[in-house]
Amino acid sequence: MALWGGRFTQAADQRFKLFNDSLRFDYRLAEQDITGSVAWSKALVTVNVLTQDEQQQLESALGVLLEEVRANPQQILESDAEDIHSWVEGRLIEKVGALGKKLHTGRSRNDQVATDLKLWCKVQVQYLLDATRQLQQALVSTAEANQDAVMPGYTHLQRAQPVTFAHWCLAYVEMLARDESRLQDTLKRLDVSPLGCGALAGTAYEIDRQQLADWLGFTSATRNSLDTVSDRDHVLELLSDASIGMIHLSRFAEDLIFFNTGEAGFVELSDRVTSGSSLMPQKKNPDALELIRGKCGRVQGALTAMSMTLKGLPLAYNKDMQEDKEGLFDALDTWLDCLQMAELVLDGIQVKRPRCQEAAEQGYANSTELADYLVAKGVPFREAHHIVGEVVVAAMGQGVALEAMTLETLQSFSSVIGDDVYPILALQSCLDKRNAQGGVSPHQVSVAISDAKQRLKQGAS
Ligand code: ARG
Asked: Cα–Cα distance between 329 and 25 in angstroms, integer?
Protein backbone atom coordinates (compact mmCIF):
# COMPACT_ATOMS: atom_id res chain seq x y z
CA MET A 1 0.00 0.00 0.00
CA ALA A 2 1.39 3.41 -0.92
CA LEU A 3 0.84 6.19 1.60
CA TRP A 4 0.16 8.68 -1.14
CA GLY A 5 -1.27 8.49 -4.64
CA GLY A 6 -4.34 10.73 -4.66
CA ARG A 7 -2.58 13.41 -6.63
CA PHE A 8 -0.93 11.05 -9.09
CA THR A 9 -2.38 9.80 -12.37
CA GLN A 10 0.56 7.66 -13.44
CA ALA A 11 2.15 4.83 -11.52
CA ALA A 12 5.79 5.12 -10.52
CA ASP A 13 8.31 3.74 -12.96
CA GLN A 14 9.52 0.41 -11.60
CA ARG A 15 13.12 1.56 -11.82
CA PHE A 16 12.29 4.70 -9.85
CA LYS A 17 10.43 2.64 -7.27
CA LEU A 18 13.48 0.43 -6.74
CA PHE A 19 15.68 3.52 -6.52
CA ASN A 20 13.40 5.30 -4.09
CA ASP A 21 12.22 2.55 -1.76
CA SER A 22 14.02 2.12 1.53
CA LEU A 23 12.29 -0.96 2.94
CA ARG A 24 15.20 -3.29 2.11
CA PHE A 25 17.28 -1.49 4.76
CA ASP A 26 14.86 0.46 6.99
CA TYR A 27 13.00 -2.77 7.85
CA ARG A 28 15.42 -2.79 10.78
CA LEU A 29 13.38 0.04 12.31
CA ALA A 30 10.21 -2.09 12.50
CA GLU A 31 10.14 -2.43 16.29
CA GLN A 32 10.75 1.27 16.79
CA ASP A 33 8.13 2.21 14.21
CA ILE A 34 5.59 0.11 16.08
CA THR A 35 6.58 1.56 19.48
CA GLY A 36 6.34 5.09 18.07
CA SER A 37 2.95 4.29 16.58
CA VAL A 38 1.57 3.04 19.90
CA ALA A 39 2.68 6.27 21.60
CA TRP A 40 1.19 8.33 18.79
CA SER A 41 -2.14 6.50 19.08
CA LYS A 42 -2.21 7.41 22.79
CA ALA A 43 -1.54 11.05 21.93
CA LEU A 44 -4.42 11.00 19.45
CA VAL A 45 -6.80 10.06 22.27
CA THR A 46 -5.80 13.19 24.17
CA VAL A 47 -6.86 15.35 21.20
CA ASN A 48 -10.06 13.40 20.58
CA VAL A 49 -9.05 11.93 17.24
CA LEU A 50 -9.34 8.42 18.63
CA THR A 51 -11.59 7.07 21.36
CA GLN A 52 -10.11 5.02 24.18
CA ASP A 53 -11.63 1.96 22.64
CA GLU A 54 -10.19 2.64 19.19
CA GLN A 55 -6.79 3.26 20.70
CA GLN A 56 -7.01 -0.06 22.54
CA GLN A 57 -7.77 -1.87 19.31
CA LEU A 58 -4.84 -0.20 17.55
CA GLU A 59 -2.50 -0.86 20.43
CA SER A 60 -3.35 -4.52 20.64
CA ALA A 61 -3.06 -5.00 16.87
CA LEU A 62 0.32 -3.25 16.97
CA GLY A 63 1.28 -5.56 19.84
CA VAL A 64 0.47 -8.60 17.73
CA LEU A 65 2.42 -7.11 14.83
CA LEU A 66 5.41 -6.57 17.12
CA GLU A 67 5.35 -10.25 18.09
CA GLU A 68 5.19 -11.26 14.44
CA VAL A 69 8.08 -8.97 13.56
CA ARG A 70 10.19 -10.30 16.42
CA ALA A 71 9.47 -13.87 15.41
CA ASN A 72 10.42 -13.23 11.79
CA PRO A 73 11.83 -9.83 10.84
CA GLN A 74 12.77 -11.06 7.37
CA GLN A 75 9.10 -11.42 6.40
CA ILE A 76 9.04 -7.64 5.95
CA LEU A 77 11.37 -7.94 2.98
CA GLU A 78 8.80 -9.95 1.06
CA SER A 79 6.57 -6.89 0.80
CA ASP A 80 6.85 -4.24 -1.90
CA ALA A 81 5.96 -1.42 0.51
CA GLU A 82 7.97 1.75 0.01
CA ASP A 83 9.42 1.90 3.48
CA ILE A 84 8.94 0.56 7.00
CA HIS A 85 6.38 3.23 7.85
CA SER A 86 4.15 2.20 4.94
CA TRP A 87 4.66 -1.44 5.81
CA VAL A 88 3.58 -1.03 9.45
CA GLU A 89 0.58 1.09 8.50
CA GLY A 90 -0.39 -1.37 5.76
CA ARG A 91 -0.22 -4.35 8.11
CA LEU A 92 -2.21 -2.47 10.72
CA ILE A 93 -4.97 -1.71 8.23
CA GLU A 94 -5.00 -5.40 7.22
CA LYS A 95 -5.55 -6.28 10.88
CA VAL A 96 -8.07 -3.65 12.03
CA GLY A 97 -9.53 -2.31 8.80
CA ALA A 98 -10.47 1.34 8.28
CA LEU A 99 -9.59 2.28 11.87
CA GLY A 100 -5.92 1.78 10.97
CA LYS A 101 -6.22 4.65 8.52
CA LYS A 102 -6.75 7.12 11.37
CA LEU A 103 -3.33 6.52 12.92
CA HIS A 104 -1.38 8.86 10.65
CA THR A 105 -3.50 11.89 11.63
CA GLY A 106 -1.23 14.81 12.53
CA ARG A 107 1.93 12.78 11.98
CA SER A 108 4.39 12.85 9.09
CA ARG A 109 6.95 10.30 8.03
CA ASN A 110 9.44 13.08 8.66
CA ASP A 111 8.95 13.21 12.41
CA GLN A 112 8.24 9.48 12.39
CA VAL A 113 11.52 8.43 10.77
CA ALA A 114 13.48 10.82 13.00
CA THR A 115 11.81 9.22 16.03
CA ASP A 116 12.33 5.65 14.85
CA LEU A 117 15.97 6.21 14.10
CA LYS A 118 16.67 7.86 17.45
CA LEU A 119 14.93 5.03 19.28
CA TRP A 120 17.03 2.54 17.30
CA CYS A 121 20.24 4.47 18.06
CA LYS A 122 19.48 4.36 21.78
CA VAL A 123 19.27 0.57 21.69
CA GLN A 124 22.47 0.25 19.66
CA VAL A 125 24.34 2.56 22.00
CA GLN A 126 23.51 0.20 24.86
CA TYR A 127 24.91 -2.78 22.91
CA LEU A 128 28.03 -0.81 22.08
CA LEU A 129 28.49 0.34 25.67
CA ASP A 130 28.19 -3.27 26.85
CA ALA A 131 30.67 -4.52 24.28
CA THR A 132 33.12 -1.71 25.03
CA ARG A 133 32.97 -2.55 28.70
CA GLN A 134 33.38 -6.26 28.10
CA LEU A 135 36.47 -5.65 26.04
CA GLN A 136 37.87 -3.42 28.78
CA GLN A 137 37.15 -6.22 31.23
CA ALA A 138 39.02 -8.70 29.05
CA LEU A 139 41.97 -6.30 28.76
CA VAL A 140 42.08 -5.83 32.53
CA SER A 141 42.07 -9.61 33.07
CA THR A 142 44.83 -10.04 30.51
CA ALA A 143 46.77 -7.25 32.23
CA GLU A 144 46.32 -8.92 35.59
CA ALA A 145 47.69 -12.19 34.29
CA ASN A 146 50.70 -10.48 32.68
CA GLN A 147 51.95 -7.97 35.22
CA ASP A 148 55.40 -9.52 35.22
CA ALA A 149 55.66 -10.04 31.45
CA VAL A 150 58.38 -7.54 30.53
CA MET A 151 58.64 -6.59 26.90
CA PRO A 152 60.16 -3.79 24.86
CA GLY A 153 58.14 -0.61 24.54
CA TYR A 154 58.50 1.18 21.21
CA THR A 155 58.62 4.64 19.78
CA HIS A 156 59.11 4.98 16.00
CA LEU A 157 58.84 1.17 16.12
CA GLN A 158 62.33 1.17 17.60
CA ARG A 159 62.88 -0.45 20.97
CA ALA A 160 62.72 2.44 23.42
CA GLN A 161 62.21 1.46 27.07
CA PRO A 162 60.98 -1.70 28.73
CA VAL A 163 57.30 -1.95 29.61
CA THR A 164 55.07 -4.83 30.65
CA PHE A 165 52.38 -6.56 28.66
CA ALA A 166 50.00 -5.45 31.42
CA HIS A 167 50.86 -1.80 30.82
CA TRP A 168 50.21 -2.25 27.11
CA CYS A 169 46.78 -3.77 27.86
CA LEU A 170 45.93 -0.87 30.17
CA ALA A 171 46.71 1.67 27.44
CA TYR A 172 43.84 0.19 25.42
CA VAL A 173 41.58 0.20 28.48
CA GLU A 174 42.05 3.98 28.54
CA MET A 175 41.16 4.35 24.86
CA LEU A 176 38.06 2.25 25.32
CA ALA A 177 37.07 4.22 28.42
CA ARG A 178 37.13 7.37 26.28
CA ASP A 179 35.09 5.60 23.59
CA GLU A 180 32.60 4.71 26.26
CA SER A 181 32.34 8.26 27.54
CA ARG A 182 31.94 9.57 23.99
CA LEU A 183 28.97 7.25 23.54
CA GLN A 184 27.49 8.45 26.83
CA ASP A 185 27.81 12.05 25.66
CA THR A 186 26.18 11.26 22.35
CA LEU A 187 23.36 9.56 24.18
CA LYS A 188 22.62 12.70 26.19
CA ARG A 189 22.09 14.86 23.11
CA LEU A 190 20.30 12.09 21.25
CA ASP A 191 17.73 11.48 23.94
CA VAL A 192 15.24 14.12 22.75
CA SER A 193 11.95 13.20 21.12
CA PRO A 194 11.13 14.38 17.57
CA LEU A 195 7.58 13.05 17.56
CA GLY A 196 4.88 15.68 17.17
CA CYS A 197 6.85 17.94 14.84
CA GLY A 198 4.84 16.88 11.82
CA ALA A 199 6.31 17.34 8.36
CA LEU A 200 8.28 20.47 9.27
CA ALA A 201 6.09 23.11 10.92
CA GLY A 202 4.77 21.15 13.90
CA THR A 203 1.57 19.16 14.30
CA ALA A 204 -1.77 20.93 14.09
CA TYR A 205 -3.13 18.92 17.03
CA GLU A 206 -2.53 20.19 20.52
CA ILE A 207 -0.45 17.32 21.69
CA ASP A 208 1.55 17.30 24.91
CA ARG A 209 4.90 16.47 23.38
CA GLN A 210 6.61 16.06 26.72
CA GLN A 211 4.12 13.39 27.67
CA LEU A 212 4.74 11.73 24.32
CA ALA A 213 8.48 11.89 24.99
CA ASP A 214 7.91 10.25 28.39
CA TRP A 215 5.90 7.44 26.84
CA LEU A 216 8.75 6.78 24.43
CA GLY A 217 11.41 6.90 27.12
CA PHE A 218 13.05 10.13 25.88
CA THR A 219 14.12 12.65 28.51
CA SER A 220 12.56 15.62 26.71
CA ALA A 221 10.98 16.81 23.47
CA THR A 222 12.79 18.88 20.82
CA ARG A 223 12.30 22.66 20.70
CA ASN A 224 12.08 23.50 17.01
CA SER A 225 10.16 21.52 14.41
CA LEU A 226 12.21 22.64 11.38
CA ASP A 227 15.41 21.59 13.06
CA THR A 228 13.91 18.38 14.36
CA VAL A 229 12.95 16.83 11.04
CA SER A 230 16.24 17.78 9.43
CA ASP A 231 18.59 17.01 12.33
CA ARG A 232 20.90 14.06 11.86
CA ASP A 233 23.63 15.26 14.22
CA HIS A 234 23.22 12.09 16.23
CA VAL A 235 24.01 10.05 13.13
CA LEU A 236 27.17 12.08 12.57
CA GLU A 237 28.09 11.82 16.24
CA LEU A 238 27.62 8.08 16.35
CA LEU A 239 29.59 7.69 13.15
CA SER A 240 32.41 9.73 14.58
CA ASP A 241 32.29 7.75 17.83
CA ALA A 242 32.49 4.63 15.69
CA SER A 243 35.33 6.06 13.60
CA ILE A 244 37.42 6.85 16.66
CA GLY A 245 36.54 3.54 18.29
CA MET A 246 37.57 1.68 15.15
CA ILE A 247 40.82 3.63 14.92
CA HIS A 248 41.59 2.39 18.42
CA LEU A 249 40.73 -1.17 17.51
CA SER A 250 42.83 -0.99 14.35
CA ARG A 251 45.83 0.08 16.42
CA PHE A 252 45.18 -2.71 18.89
CA ALA A 253 45.04 -5.10 15.94
CA GLU A 254 48.23 -3.76 14.40
CA ASP A 255 50.18 -4.02 17.66
CA LEU A 256 49.13 -7.63 18.10
CA ILE A 257 49.79 -8.50 14.47
CA PHE A 258 53.31 -7.24 15.01
CA PHE A 259 53.71 -9.00 18.38
CA ASN A 260 52.59 -12.20 16.66
CA THR A 261 55.13 -12.04 13.81
CA GLY A 262 57.99 -14.52 13.64
CA GLU A 263 60.30 -11.52 14.01
CA ALA A 264 58.83 -10.35 17.33
CA GLY A 265 57.35 -13.59 18.63
CA PHE A 266 55.91 -11.95 21.76
CA VAL A 267 52.51 -13.60 21.58
CA GLU A 268 50.87 -16.60 20.03
CA LEU A 269 47.29 -16.23 18.84
CA SER A 270 44.78 -18.97 19.38
CA ASP A 271 43.81 -21.31 16.53
CA ARG A 272 40.26 -20.11 17.12
CA VAL A 273 40.98 -16.70 15.58
CA THR A 274 43.59 -17.49 12.95
CA SER A 275 43.47 -19.26 9.64
CA GLY A 276 45.78 -21.26 7.42
CA SER A 277 47.20 -20.67 3.98
CA SER A 278 45.90 -22.73 1.08
CA LEU A 279 49.45 -23.10 -0.23
CA MET A 280 51.91 -22.76 2.63
CA PRO A 281 51.21 -25.41 5.26
CA GLN A 282 53.34 -23.78 7.94
CA LYS A 283 51.30 -20.58 8.08
CA LYS A 284 48.88 -19.38 10.71
CA ASN A 285 47.57 -15.98 9.72
CA PRO A 286 46.13 -13.38 12.12
CA ASP A 287 42.99 -12.90 10.00
CA ALA A 288 40.70 -11.77 12.83
CA LEU A 289 43.08 -8.93 13.63
CA GLU A 290 43.70 -8.04 10.00
CA LEU A 291 39.96 -7.78 9.42
CA ILE A 292 39.53 -5.55 12.47
CA ARG A 293 42.29 -3.33 11.08
CA GLY A 294 40.81 -3.43 7.58
CA LYS A 295 37.22 -2.75 8.58
CA CYS A 296 38.27 0.56 10.07
CA GLY A 297 38.20 1.90 6.50
CA ARG A 298 34.51 1.40 5.80
CA VAL A 299 33.55 3.06 9.07
CA GLN A 300 35.61 6.17 8.26
CA GLY A 301 33.96 6.06 4.83
CA ALA A 302 30.47 6.07 6.35
CA LEU A 303 31.29 9.18 8.40
CA THR A 304 32.63 10.99 5.36
CA ALA A 305 29.65 9.95 3.26
CA MET A 306 27.14 11.21 5.82
CA SER A 307 28.97 14.50 6.32
CA MET A 308 28.94 15.10 2.58
CA THR A 309 25.27 14.17 2.29
CA LEU A 310 24.25 16.65 4.97
CA LYS A 311 26.51 19.46 3.84
CA GLY A 312 24.53 22.29 2.27
CA LEU A 313 21.12 20.61 2.69
CA PRO A 314 18.40 23.24 2.94
CA LEU A 315 15.91 23.08 5.80
CA ALA A 316 13.92 21.02 6.42
CA TYR A 317 13.55 17.33 5.45
CA ASN A 318 14.99 16.29 2.09
CA LYS A 319 15.04 12.81 0.64
CA ASP A 320 18.84 12.94 0.67
CA MET A 321 18.46 12.14 4.35
CA GLN A 322 17.25 8.65 3.60
CA GLU A 323 20.94 7.99 2.89
CA ASP A 324 21.58 8.20 6.65
CA LYS A 325 20.66 4.61 7.41
CA GLU A 326 22.76 2.16 5.43
CA GLY A 327 26.06 3.73 6.42
CA LEU A 328 25.03 4.04 10.06
CA PHE A 329 23.72 0.48 10.28
CA ASP A 330 26.85 -0.90 8.66
CA ALA A 331 29.24 1.20 10.74
CA LEU A 332 27.62 0.33 14.07
CA ASP A 333 27.30 -3.35 13.17
CA THR A 334 30.95 -3.37 12.15
CA TRP A 335 32.08 -1.65 15.33
CA LEU A 336 30.12 -4.06 17.50
CA ASP A 337 31.48 -7.09 15.63
CA CYS A 338 35.03 -5.82 15.95
CA LEU A 339 34.69 -5.15 19.68
CA GLN A 340 33.46 -8.70 20.16
CA MET A 341 36.14 -10.15 17.92
CA ALA A 342 38.87 -8.27 19.79
CA GLU A 343 37.60 -9.84 22.99
CA LEU A 344 37.76 -13.29 21.43
CA VAL A 345 41.34 -12.67 20.30
CA LEU A 346 42.37 -11.77 23.86
CA ASP A 347 40.60 -14.78 25.26
CA GLY A 348 43.06 -17.23 23.76
CA ILE A 349 46.22 -15.14 23.58
CA GLN A 350 49.43 -16.55 24.94
CA VAL A 351 52.20 -14.19 25.98
CA LYS A 352 55.64 -15.74 25.36
CA ARG A 353 57.46 -14.32 28.35
CA PRO A 354 61.01 -15.61 27.80
CA ARG A 355 61.01 -14.18 24.28
CA CYS A 356 59.52 -10.87 25.48
CA GLN A 357 62.13 -10.64 28.22
CA GLU A 358 64.96 -11.44 25.83
CA ALA A 359 63.81 -8.74 23.41
CA ALA A 360 63.47 -6.23 26.24
CA GLU A 361 67.06 -6.95 27.25
CA GLN A 362 68.29 -6.29 23.73
CA GLY A 363 68.14 -2.99 21.94
CA TYR A 364 69.77 -0.95 24.73
CA ALA A 365 66.44 -0.18 26.29
CA ASN A 366 68.23 0.70 29.54
CA SER A 367 70.31 3.53 28.03
CA THR A 368 68.17 6.20 29.66
CA GLU A 369 68.94 4.54 32.99
CA LEU A 370 72.66 4.94 32.43
CA ALA A 371 72.17 8.60 31.53
CA ASP A 372 70.07 9.15 34.67
CA TYR A 373 72.79 7.42 36.68
CA LEU A 374 75.40 9.86 35.33
CA VAL A 375 73.08 12.77 36.11
CA ALA A 376 72.79 11.52 39.69
CA LYS A 377 76.60 11.64 39.83
CA GLY A 378 76.60 15.29 38.79
CA VAL A 379 77.00 15.05 35.00
CA PRO A 380 74.67 17.49 33.18
CA PHE A 381 71.96 15.56 31.29
CA ARG A 382 72.95 16.73 27.81
CA GLU A 383 76.52 15.59 28.41
CA ALA A 384 75.35 12.34 29.98
CA HIS A 385 73.17 11.71 26.90
CA HIS A 386 76.22 12.13 24.66
CA ILE A 387 78.42 9.85 26.77
CA VAL A 388 75.80 7.10 26.80
CA GLY A 389 75.48 7.40 23.01
CA GLU A 390 79.19 6.61 22.76
CA VAL A 391 78.88 3.71 25.21
CA VAL A 392 76.05 2.27 23.11
CA VAL A 393 78.14 2.46 19.93
CA ALA A 394 80.96 0.63 21.68
CA ALA A 395 78.62 -1.99 23.12
CA MET A 396 77.09 -2.57 19.71
CA GLY A 397 80.59 -3.00 18.30
CA GLN A 398 81.27 -5.70 20.91
CA GLY A 399 77.82 -7.18 20.36
CA VAL A 400 76.97 -7.02 24.08
CA ALA A 401 74.39 -5.34 26.31
CA LEU A 402 75.35 -2.34 28.47
CA GLU A 403 75.25 -4.41 31.64
CA ALA A 404 77.65 -6.94 30.07
CA MET A 405 80.43 -4.36 29.67
CA THR A 406 83.23 -4.43 32.20
CA LEU A 407 83.53 -1.65 34.72
CA GLU A 408 86.86 -0.74 33.21
CA THR A 409 85.36 -0.24 29.79
CA LEU A 410 82.48 1.79 31.19
CA GLN A 411 84.88 3.96 33.14
CA SER A 412 86.80 4.73 29.98
CA PHE A 413 83.74 6.77 28.94
CA SER A 414 83.19 8.43 32.31
CA SER A 415 85.25 8.16 35.44
CA VAL A 416 82.21 8.74 37.67
CA ILE A 417 80.86 5.27 36.85
CA GLY A 418 81.23 2.79 39.72
CA ASP A 419 80.07 -0.78 40.19
CA ASP A 420 76.82 0.52 41.68
CA VAL A 421 75.82 1.03 38.02
CA TYR A 422 74.94 -2.64 37.43
CA PRO A 423 71.80 -2.89 39.57
CA ILE A 424 70.60 0.34 37.88
CA LEU A 425 70.93 -1.29 34.48
CA ALA A 426 68.78 -4.29 35.44
CA LEU A 427 65.42 -4.42 33.64
CA GLN A 428 63.51 -4.61 36.87
CA SER A 429 65.04 -1.38 38.06
CA CYS A 430 64.02 0.34 34.81
CA LEU A 431 60.44 -0.64 35.57
CA ASP A 432 60.52 0.07 39.31
CA LYS A 433 61.79 3.60 38.83
CA ARG A 434 58.83 4.68 36.70
CA ASN A 435 56.60 5.01 39.68
CA ALA A 436 54.85 8.34 39.10
CA GLN A 437 51.14 8.11 38.26
CA GLY A 438 50.57 6.42 34.91
CA GLY A 439 54.03 4.86 34.83
CA VAL A 440 55.01 1.25 34.23
CA SER A 441 56.23 0.37 37.74
CA PRO A 442 54.64 -2.77 39.17
CA HIS A 443 53.06 -0.63 41.88
CA GLN A 444 51.47 1.82 39.42
CA VAL A 445 50.28 -1.00 37.18
CA SER A 446 48.61 -2.79 40.05
CA VAL A 447 46.95 0.47 41.17
CA ALA A 448 45.76 1.00 37.58
CA ILE A 449 44.35 -2.51 37.45
CA SER A 450 42.37 -2.10 40.64
CA ASP A 451 41.14 1.37 39.60
CA ALA A 452 39.95 0.01 36.27
CA LYS A 453 38.22 -2.92 37.97
CA GLN A 454 36.51 -0.57 40.36
CA ARG A 455 35.38 1.71 37.57
CA LEU A 456 34.05 -1.18 35.50
CA LYS A 457 32.20 -2.57 38.50
CA GLN A 458 30.56 0.77 39.19
CA GLY A 459 29.60 1.23 35.57
CA ALA A 460 31.28 4.65 35.26
CA SER A 461 33.56 5.47 32.37
N1 ARG B 1 12.19 6.61 3.92
C2 ARG B 1 12.27 7.94 4.36
C3 ARG B 1 13.62 8.21 5.05
O4 ARG B 1 14.23 7.28 5.39
C5 ARG B 1 11.18 8.25 5.32
C6 ARG B 1 10.76 9.68 5.35
C7 ARG B 1 10.11 10.00 4.09
N8 ARG B 1 9.53 11.28 4.09
C9 ARG B 1 9.06 11.83 2.97
N10 ARG B 1 8.56 12.99 3.08
N11 ARG B 1 9.15 11.23 1.83
O12 ARG B 1 14.04 9.32 5.19
From this structure: 9
